[in-house]
Amino acid sequence: ASPEATGPKPFGIFFADATELLALPAGATPTLTRVDPETATVSVFDLGLIRGDGIFEATTVWKGTPLAWGLHLTRLQKSAQMAELEIPPTEALVALTDEVLAQMGEVEYAQLKLMITRGADDSLSAAPKDAPLSIIAMVDCGKEPREPEIEIVTLDREVNKDSAQKAPWLLLGAKTLSYATNMAAKREYERRGAQNAVFITLDGYVMEGPQSTVVLREGGRVVTPHPSIGILHGTTQQELFAWAELTGLETAYEEITKDRLFTADQVWMMGASSVQSVRAIDGKPITHDIDTAIEISEFMKTEREAIDAWTAA
Ligand code: PLP
């Protein structure tokens, strides 16, 4: 069928009631307001808009299941703690996303995003004084999956490997809505003809991509930078570690120097339960294997029970 015949893919935007969610009784269904994407509005006083002051999580929905959503909500709570934001408990957020997906109907493949901002800036004279958090869920059924094979570049990130500990106000490792620098890095790698990038610290250590975690396979070992270097603890990386251990590979969090990217047997970039095989870095071809990347992405869709049991352990 032509795209005209199937029509536009469904897209859902839902506003939740923060006050209700902060005190939602167990088993209750949260109230949601589904808004028309064309006319949906966010307050001009919202700190998420004015300062990027908020946090979020995003994942892939596959056959109705938001993949690794428990890991995402654990990270959301960590981001909230780092940003000193009091958000609803995880059980209430699970009830919220369950209801969002129920209202969406049958979803084969989509991106689910949950955003929580600090609400209205009450230092502005006209802002509502009691506006709590803004909580918005978005479901995009028209988004394309990540490409399985890519080229990347390395980009300097002007922090050291211990900056996250020394300067916690940088919020390194929190998934905040302030993604302006991540998007600037994306424009830079695109300008250089690549499809992703890896940030390197001033002292020469591998961090993460602007929207991805990086994992290396070196012989029978699978390694990734320790989150304490000031990166997100990737949910896809945790799922990949489940695959690796079930396949008989050893896994570890380590300090990884930049040179190891070029000598690894495989460099993977990943996010939202999808894995990409890197074929070149800074224009230099590296060893890679696209079939395994595709196999791991499939594993993340089909072996949920094994993954959830492994990541919960
Ligand atoms: N690092 C950053 C900065 C990200 O934005 C993302 C999001 O996709 C990731 C890593 C990968 O995280 P996850 O695998 O949990 O989607």
TrEMBL record:
<dbReference type="InterPro" id="IPR043131">
    <property type="entry name" value="BCAT-like_N"/>
</dbReference>
<protein>
    <submittedName>
        <fullName>Aminodeoxychorismate lyase</fullName>
    </submittedName>
</protein>
<dbReference type="InterPro" id="IPR050571">
    <property type="entry name" value="Class-IV_PLP-Dep_Aminotrnsfr"/>
</dbReference>
<keyword id="KW-0456">Lyase</keyword>
<dbReference type="InterPro" id="IPR043132">
    <property type="entry name" value="BCAT-like_C"/>
</dbReference>
<dbReference type="InterPro" id="IPR036038">
    <property type="entry name" value="Aminotransferase-like"/>
</dbReference>
<comment type="similarity">
    <text>Belongs to the class-IV pyridoxal-phosphate-dependent aminotransferase family.</text>
</comment>
<dbReference type="InterPro" id="IPR001544">
    <property type="entry name" value="Aminotrans_IV"/>
</dbReference>
<dbReference type="Pfam" id="PF01063">
    <property type="entry name" value="Aminotran_4"/>
</dbReference>
<dbReference type="GO" id="GO:0016829">
    <property type="term" value="F:lyase activity"/>
</dbReference>
